[in-house]
Design brief:
Layout lengths: L1 H20 L6 E4 L4 E3 L9 E5 L5 H12 L8 E6 L4 H12 L7 E5 L5 H4 L8 E5 L5 E5 L5 H5 L4
Parallel strand pairs: 3-4, 4-5
Antiparallel strand pairs: 1-2, 1-5, 3-6, 6-7
Length: 157
């Protein structure tokens, strides 16, 4: 009986852990102005793309450029770029280089100065990594390399 209870507790714990992995987590990063930005700052009922990036990474720059090229198709998607680069100037320069004349209303660049991204999003991520969430905050796909804008958009409707 004791073994059955242990197995049941393990299965329930796994079920809840899996459910937690499937939702946009609570997080807190800093925006380029030094303000705290959390998941509460996101617009409700919009799909969300979270990209872990490094402002010095060529692959990250290519990825961001592909998104910029397809900007009109991302107009109803929240784009959240998160870096651990502590210098806000480097991140601001990346944003300026790629998204200088953007019409995107839901574009956020955030700094993870406490290295919490992997903990919040429950995994190990390298730049660029992209996590996609539907309008209800349910995780629909993760990419761990450069991915075309068309492939990202397939999951962001």
């Amino acid at each position: 009986m004791k073994q059955l209870l242990i197995i049941l507790a393990f299965l329930l714990g796994t079920l809840f852990a899996t459910k937690a992995l499937a939702q946009l987590p609570a997080f807190a990063f800093t925006d380029l102005e030094g303000n705290v930005f959390t998941q509460q700052n996101l617009q409700p009922n919009l799909p969300t793309m979270v990209m872990y990036f490094d402002p010095y990474c060529d692959h990250c720059e290519h990825q961001a450029s592909w998104i910029k090229e397809a900007e009109s198709k991302f107009k109803n998607v929240q784009l959240v770029f998160v870096t651990t680069e502590p210098e806000a100037d480097a991140t601001a320069a990346f944003k300026e280089r790629i998204f200088k004349e953007t019409q995107l209303k839901h574009l956020h660049f955030l700094i993870d100065s406490d290295f919490m991204f992997d903990g919040y999003f429950e995994g190990y991520y390298e730049a660029p990594s992209i996590l996609l969430f539907d309008k209800n905050g349910k995780k629909v796909k993760t990419f761990s390399k450069e991915t075309s804008a068309a492939d990202l958009l397939k999951f962001l409707q």
